[in-house]
Each structure stands twice: as C-alpha cells, then as structure tokens.
C-alpha cells in the first residue's frame, strides 16, 4: 500500500510550501527529489550534446539519453526502443502523427474522434480535416460520461483512415475500454490507424501498447513526475518508418548533399535538433520511481483516494459530479460544479487555504459545451495525495458554500 | 476571510443592481470571456443633448468578480457624462472594487468596462 504522507517526503515542494494541498496533478504532477537530482546530474556532471562528441562526457550523455528510451519501451510494452520518439509533450506527439498521416489523407477519407478529447487530441484532427476538406466525425458520450460505443462504432466505415481517442478523460475521469474498443474498430476497418492519447493514463496504471492493439500512443513526461518539455510518441515501427519527418535539421539526417538528404531511421528521424537532453534523462528517474512503487499500487492508491473523495463530495449539497460514479471505472480526477457558484470563485477561495484545484474548461471546450456547462472545478489525485488532502478540500468547499450562502 | 470576497462584492453578486433590460435602450452591447464562460450584456439610455447616461441595465452570468464589477459599474455610470465614462480606466475599476487581483482574475473584473466602452463606441 502507498502511504501518501511517506511519499510526500520525496517531494521537496512540500518543504517549501508547508501547507500545500496539491490537487491538480491532471494539469501537471509534482516532482520527486530523485527526478530533480537526475536532471541536475546531467547539468553538473556530463552536460555535453548527444551523438556529436567523440569524447567521454558526450558519450555518457548519449548513453543516459538512449537508456531512457529503453526504459520507456519496457515501461509501456513496446517491441523496441526504436519505436519511442522523444518530443516536447503529448500535444507535439499528436501533431507529429497528424502531420505524418495527414500528408497521406485525400478527399473521401474520414477521421473519427470523440467529444471527450483534450483540445490537443481534437484541434490537430479538426484542422487537418478542414484543410483537406475531409469528413471529421465526433463521437458522443453517454449520460454517465462514458464513450457511446455504439455511436463511435457507427462512425467507422471503410473510408475511416484515422481514429483518435483518449485513454482517460482529463475531465470526466472516464477510463475508456481501449482494448475491446480497438478490437471492434479494427473488425470494422482493419486498415484505419488508431491513436490513443495516454496523457492521463501512462502515469496511473500499467500500459501495454501491444496488448491494447493501437498504432500510436502518446503521453507527457510532466504528468508522470518527470520534467516539463518532454513528451513521448510510441508508434509501430513500420508506421514510423513510412512516415515523413516532422521537422528537418541536425541529428535526424544520415547524409546531406547539396541537392538531397538521406534521413536516419526512426526514432531519430523525428528528433531534429538538440532535444531536451536533461529532461529526457530526468524522465528516466521518474520511470524508475514509478517502477519501484509499482503501477498496480499506484492505481490502487488512486482508487482509494477517489472513492474517499467521491463519498465525501456527494454529501455536499448542490454539488454535482461529472463522469462515471464507480471509482473502478475512473481515474483519479473529479470534475464538479456547485449550484450558483462559479468554478473560478471556488478555486480562488480554496487557494486562500493553499488548496490547488483547477477551474475552467480544462482544454476540453467541446466537452463542456456538450455538458452545457461553461466551466467546472476539478480536483485530481496522485501518489502523494492523502485523505487529509481530501478532507481539506471538503472543508474548503464547505467554506465556499458558507461565503456564498 | 478572503479579501477578494469581502462583503461589498458578495452583496453585489448576490443582489445585482440594475439587473435586467430597458424597454427602449439607446445603445447596447455584449461580450463574453470564452475561457471562463462569462457573458455580459449592457443596455444604456442616453440623453443625446446633454450626452449623459440616464439609465442602464445589465444581464449576464459569470463569477463573483465579473458580476459584482458589472453591478457596481452600473451604479457609477448613471448620470455621468459620456466623455467621462469613455476615459474610465482599469485603475478606476480596481479602485471601485477595492481589491487586489491576480492577472487571471483581472480579465473578469474588466469585462464590465469593456462592454460599457463597446456600447459607447456603438453610439457613433
Ligand atoms: C487527456 C490529455 N491529453 C493531452 C494533454 C496535453 O498534454 P501536454 O500539454 O503535455 O501536451 C493533456 C494535458 O492536460 C490531457 O489531459
């Protein structure tokens, strides 16, 4: 079992902000000392560029950087490290695929996504579709906030080229049944490509991309205890191999002539220019941290925190919770509204007690429009969350209600 | 107690002044803060000869800051010369609210001023 109070000791921010109640991991996670130290180690001990130097510290940096690729491949069940591309964040990973696949799209092709997507898995597809004049279908959700599977499958046909949906909703918390969904989608059209947005999943339970059966999987380092500025794209190797580079420049070439260029193989073909070397190396320490905790335990802790929070929040009058009601079907994130009180006012008053939640549309405006709410308040939980944090939230919300009574 | 949610702001939020619609407004305008979901509209009755605002109503949905700012502003506006209203600034609004705001909440507070200025610009 994970003890949030024990975990907090690894996170120096709790020493600098002694009364911090951090409930916004969905936006970004806090960082343990191990990650900060590892990033620091690169800058203090071998801060050379990678791939370029025939000298020891450059080779050390390259080795550390490439070792993280292996770690991630192992962490998500990829076939090889060659399928792991480092980018800036999940958003860039999706844009990379949208650009690569987008190039091959033609009139008559169709794209399918869902109304529960984060803007980063919505706008890239929408814009591709608008530019190319191709059909773009947006699947509905059920009243409980689950993907409407029938609706989604009804949108898949032999013209579907790309299907993009999230593993876990950053608002509703819904965990989509990715594996069975993919089976059904591929049964209708085995040739369509499927991208799964794992930004809210990879840090929260065990992922096995090959078992899921998707073609692309993306996530961000900063949401999984790692540094900001690093994202991961996993793609099936033959797909990456057939895809055009995203950007051109150094590091991604094998030879450049005046009149032509030969590109490296994946994944390096997609990593133009000097990457966030320290960030990638820091991410390796985050993966180690999660591996030591054990992803099953991480998930268990989140279920425990979410059940506890759901129970207490339900007892508050006028508070409405969005998304699946059963904690087994949802991630550690709860979006809610309180009758007649704007989410920004909720967040602001909680902040005066050092309680950090998020308020707004959480980069999911289409979802909020479909729910017919302008904004929601959102609390999210992670390995360092304790029942005391949730008690503080509930106490704070009671105070909000008093102020606005 | 939170500074931001002092009595006067909460009072205007819970009991907005000049809320509703005018029968025959001279000018009207509206705007919204898409990212917050706030919406605000204002209607003004203007005496053309004297260039004075004689009446005003507002409607909207939003947070306590944007709504109380609008409510307070309607009280300021009545009986004022158009020219004097056109020169109202951000600082006047902050003084009126009497609170310190972070950059993210500033736009909530200033929505009312934007809608007022838009309405006055619509006159010409
Ligand atoms: C579901 C989901 N997808 C994508 C993203 C985008 O992540 P990033 O901003 O790191 O690119 C987020 C971040 O909030 C998210 O919650």
Automatic annotation (TrEMBL), chain B:
One of its GO terms (molecular function) is iron-sulfur cluster binding. CDD domains: IscU_like. InterPro entries: NIF_FeS_clus_asmbl_NifU_N (IPR002871). Residues 5-122 form the NIF system FeS cluster assembly NifU N-terminal domain. One of its GO terms (biological process) is iron-sulfur cluster assembly. Pfam families: NifU_N. It comes from the Bacteria. This is SUF system FeS assembly protein, NifU family. The lineage of its organism: Bacteria, Candidatus Gottesmaniibacteriota.
């Amino acid at each position: 079992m994970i003890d949030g109070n024990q975990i907090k000791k690894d996170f120096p921010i709790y020493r600098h902000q002694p009364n911090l109640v951090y409930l916004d991991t969905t936006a970004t996670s806090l960082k343990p000392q191990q990650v900060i130290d590892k990033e620091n180690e690169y800058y203090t001990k071998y801060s050379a560029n990678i791939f370029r130097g025939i000298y020891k510290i450059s080779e050390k940096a390259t080795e550390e950087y490439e070792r993280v690729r292996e770690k991630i491949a192992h962490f998500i069940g990829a076939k090889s490290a060659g399928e792991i591309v480092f980018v800036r964040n999940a958003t860039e990973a999706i844009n990379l695929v949208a650009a690569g696949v987008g190039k091959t799209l033609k009139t008559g092709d169709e794209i399918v996504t869902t109304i529960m997507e984060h803007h980063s898995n919505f706008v890239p597809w929408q814009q591709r579709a608008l530019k190319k004049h191709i059909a773009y279908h947006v699947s509905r959700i059920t009243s409980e906030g689950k993907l409407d599977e029938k609706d989604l499958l009804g949108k898949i046909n032999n013209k579907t080229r790309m299907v993009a949906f999230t593993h876990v909703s950053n608002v509703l918390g819904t965990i989509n049944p990715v594996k069975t969904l993919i089976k059904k989608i591929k049964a209708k059209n085995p040739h369509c490509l499927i991208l799964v947005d794992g930004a809210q999943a990879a840090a929260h339970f065990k992922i096995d991309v090959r078992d899921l059966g998707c073609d692309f999987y993306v996530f961000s380092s900063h949401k999984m205890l790692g540094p900001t500025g690093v994202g991961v794209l996993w793609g099936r190797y033959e797909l990456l191999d057939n895809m055009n580079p995203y950007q051109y420049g150094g590091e991604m070439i094998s030879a450049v002539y005046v009149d032509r260029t030969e590109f490296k193989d994946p994944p390096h073909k997609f990593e133009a220019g000097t990457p966030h070397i320290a960030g990638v190396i820091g991410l390796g320490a985050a993966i180690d941290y999660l591996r030591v905790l054990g992803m099953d335990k991480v998930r268990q802790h989140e279920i425990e925190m979410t059940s506890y929070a759901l129970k207490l929040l339900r007892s508050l009058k006028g508070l409405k919770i969005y998304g699946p009601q059963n904690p087994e079907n949802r991630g550690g994130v709860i979006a809610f509204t309180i009758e007649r009180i704007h989410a920004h006012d909720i967040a602001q008053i909680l902040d005066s007690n050092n309680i950090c939640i998020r308020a707004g549309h959480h980069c999911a405006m289409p979802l909020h429009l479909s729910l017919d709410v302008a904004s929601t308040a959102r609390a999210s939980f992670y390995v360092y969350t304790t029942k005391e944090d949730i008690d503080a939230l509930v106490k704070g919300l009671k105070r909000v209600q008093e102020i606005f009574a | 107690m939170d500074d931001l949610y002092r009595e006067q702001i909460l009072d205007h939020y819970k009991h907005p002044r000049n809320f509703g619609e005018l029968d025959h407004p001279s000018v009207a305008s509206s705007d919204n803060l898409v990212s917050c979901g706030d919406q605000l509209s204002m209607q003004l009755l203007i005496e053309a000869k004297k260039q004075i605002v004689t009446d005003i109503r507002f409607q909207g949905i939003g947070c306590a800051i944007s709504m109380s700012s609008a409510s307070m502003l309607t009280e300021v506006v009545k009986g004022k010369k158009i020219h004097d209203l056109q020169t109202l600034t951000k600082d006047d609004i902050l003084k009126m609210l009497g609170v310190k705001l972070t950059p993210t909440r500033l736009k909530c507070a200033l929505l009312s001023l934007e809608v007022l200025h838009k309405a006055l610009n619509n006159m010409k």
